[in-house]
Amino acid sequence: MTEETHAVIILFGGSGDLARRKLYPAMFGLFRRGQLCQHFAVIGTARRPWSDAYYREIVSAAVEDEPGATAGQVAAFASHFYYQSHDVTDAAHYTTLKDLAAKLDDQYAVGGNRLYYMAMAPSFFATIATHLKSEALLTSTGFNRLVIEKPFGHDYASAKELNDSITATFDEHQIYRIDHYLGKEMVQAILALRFANPLFKAVWNKDYIQDIQITLAEAVGVEERAGYYEGAGALRDMVQNHIMQLVAYLTMAEPAAKTAAAIHEVKSAAFEALHVYTPAEAAANFVRGQYAAATINGTRINGYREETGVAADSLTDTFVAGKLGVDSPSFAGVPIYVRTGKRLRRKSTQVTVTFKPTTSGLFAGAAPTNLTLYLEPHQGYSLFINGKQLGTTTALMPEELKYRHDPHAAANAPEAYERLIGSALAGDETDFTRWQEVAAAWHFVDAIAAGWADDPTMPTYPAGSMGPSEAFELLAKDGHQWFWQPTHIRLAD
Ligand SMILES: NC(=O)C1=CN([C@@H]2O[C@H](COP(=O)(O)OP(=O)(O)OC[C@H]3O[C@@H](n4cnc5c(N)ncnc54)[C@H](OP(=O)(O)O)[C@@H]3O)[C@@H](O)[C@H]2O)C=CC1
Ligand SMILES: O=C1O[C@H](COP(=O)(O)O)[C@@H](O)[C@H](O)[C@H]1O
């Protein structure tokens, strides 16, 4: 039985893309599961002069196509939404916001609980946090929690500046930094896989693991987000956050308890153990690329430099592949290969852990075995073992043991944003990023960017391929290859 949370949610950026595509459906999910029920109100803010009635139409339109939604549910949900036209840079507006929040606090009997959600460009985060304090919006009777969207800075220096300005108002335990990968079902399943199975617990270390591969492949291009992406690129957009978090989950020690504090303790240690490259090491171990035009199934796909809002001579990376290492006693020397890119052959998010082959005994030299975690679009696992061929032979053959979550059940499970907003409302910090983690990830990523800084070349890869040849050479020089090499193109993903 889900426990109801009492809260007023103040959503900065209530008219934006993220709010409509992700946040309203997520809140609707919480409403239908009962975590948001009677005692909640949402104040959406943005500059455009909307009325409450129009805002409720926008919110209704954002959720009415959710599977199984009824008109009654949609109307009941939307009735909790209020709109405040508000320029976040103007201190005067916070007075009206404060008055409305206080009124709704009483009306819905929420006990002074407030969730401030910053779904706006990061350049506004510090301004909003400062005004929340200076204009006395924070309550003293309930909780005050701040949810912050990505990106958290552009490099370590800007992230620290942002963090300093936010922590002038909010304590670390009140700050919920979003990395939506931490809300994904199969990311949350890593803990169970690693620590509930003695089979894997025993071999999850450098003595048995040959290498780990992480692939976050996207079929989509930059779409309408060039304004943001041009200044970020794949390194900052995907490696600094999602890939680093996966690396930490895969290499951290077992937490002492299933609590946020215990999990963050081992996760922070994993981040601290990341081997930060010198610029020369970075240049040797990380490659980048940019997608070029290609014709796929008769349709011409634009190259990155032809996309709306992208400079014709852009040097923004739309693909990154690299090898990284973790200097911990358990993982020292295990290569972790990562890659991510836009306009790759298919959408696929997966992790493969390859185990070392047996070097002695009856089957010395047998092929390495491996375990793959499928995060998306399908969710499940596949374990390749060395089996015995049928018949009167002792010869081996690879055999695959597979599990896949039922697609219908998976579709009905809460989506990442629903889990994360639900956790923030419940005060569970487990699946949010701590400052030490963000800082360590930026130190790592800044070193890669420094390694590329003196190199004006930008390898290209055809849209619909699996990245530039450099990404394949990176593994080939270690005698390895990417485990996942899809052969057919499904650009619809
Ligand atoms: N969209 C996505 O898929 C994702 C977005 N994010 C992050 O979420 C955040 C929001 O992104 P997104 O929704 O795409 O951005 P949008 O540009 O779609 O929305 C920005 C919002 O901010 C409001 N706004 C802009 N300036 C002001 C101002 N001075 N005062 C008050 N409101 C203002 C806009 O409304 P108005 O113009 O009416 O003022 C709008 O509601 C960003 O940090 C982004 O990086 C993260 C992951 C994915
Ligand atoms: O954070 C981001 O993630 C998405 C990919 O997320 P996924 O859940 O579909 O794997 C990416 O498209 C976007 O550029 C990035 O900002």
Automatic annotation (TrEMBL):
Keywords on record: Carbohydrate metabolism, Glucose metabolism, NADP, Oxidoreductase
Catalytic machinery residues: H242 (proton acceptor)
Keyword ATP-binding attached: no
Coiled coil region boundaries: none
Binding site for substrate: H180, K184, E218, D237, K342, K347
UniProt-listed GO biological process terms: glucose metabolic process; pentose-phosphate shunt, oxidative branch
Glucose-6-phosphate dehydrogenase C-terminal domain ranges (all copies): 191-482
HAMAP family named among the record's database cross-references: G6PD
Name of the protein described by the UniProt record: Glucose-6-phosphate 1-dehydrogenase
Origin species: Lacticaseibacillus nasuensis JCM 17158
